Amino acid sequence: xxxxxxxxxxxxxxxxDSMTILKDVGISIDNGKDQLKASAKNFPLEVFYLRNGDIxxxxxxxxxxxxxxxxxxxxxxxxxxxxxxxxxxxxxxxSIAVPKSSxxxxxxxxxxxxxxxxxxxxxxxxxxxxxxxxxxxxINGSVEIAPNIGLADAIVxxxxxxxxxxxxxxxxxxxxxxxQAVLAVSPLINSENQNILNKLQFRLQSxxxxxxxxxxxxxxPNKKLDDIVNILxxxxxxxxxxxxxxxxxxxxxxxxxxxxxxxxxxxxxxGAEGILVCPIENMVL
Length: 285
Ligand SMILES: Nc1ncnc2c1ncn2[C@@H]1O[C@H](COP(=O)(O)OP(=O)(O)OP(=O)(O)O)[C@@H](O)[C@H]1O
Ligand SMILES: O=P(O)(O)OC[C@H]1O[C@H](OP(=O)(O)OP(=O)(O)O)[C@H](O)[C@@H]1O
Ligand SMILES: [Mg+2]
Known about the structure:
With 285 residues, the protein is α/β, with parallel strands linked by helices.
């Protein structure tokens, strides 16, 4: 039987969350220490542990069928490779940063300047769009140090919390792109493995939907139910069950996790009691 070959970062920022999401979709992987390849026990899947930066080429060559990869790396090196699902972790930006004292106003201020980066294609595209000529210094790590050692006037690198920029006396002045971990597919995938990938994607979608939402249970007096139902934008309509206590009901619904605290306050104001909030493992539509 055919197996879907999926690349996952061997070690680094994406590794743990990639393995967690595979586990959360019910795939159990024999993870021998230092193995470069592992098979799933209960799903037709083989995992290849690779460098994030090498994965676009493996996808292009069809060595792997799919990958969990940083979108920024795909934009830099993966032309022609499609993203089929955004996975919601490892969110970051690729940004321009300059020394704190600089009076940078716009990209035009980098005309004739030196930019250090690990993302030359992304930077060149941005410079071309803005008709700016600059000299690139391509370095693979510790890019933020470049202005301090006199190697560059500006950098383009990943920014998440901003603490690396801060520690190096730099400030973010322009955002080239937003990134997160994504599921990408090789243009050379065969139809049998495409079917397996569809099944994996279906499972991922239900886990991602679950992560995005909370399950809420509460008790309320019947006369307040209409007000409460209006506050809860549930999946379809909330489930309402009578309680043993006369004139009261229990109400169950799903709330988007971002709306959660505001909705809870409103529910309390409208007479809800005994509110329970639970995580959702899967939400299958
Ligand atoms: N500080 C960060 N916060 C959030 N996401 C990040 C951060 N740094 C990197 N990422 C994301 O995680 C991906 C992997 O980053 P990481 O530093 O682990 O690997 P790398 O050194 O770029 O790659 P390789 O696996 O090729 O050695 C990046 O491409 C980016 O999408
Ligand atoms: O805005 P922050 O939260 O500080 O994150 C940004 C930093 O994180 C990444 O480096 P990482 O720690 O992955 O080290 P690396 O350069 O060795 O990959 C990235 O290259 C930045 O340097
Ligand atoms: Mg890194």
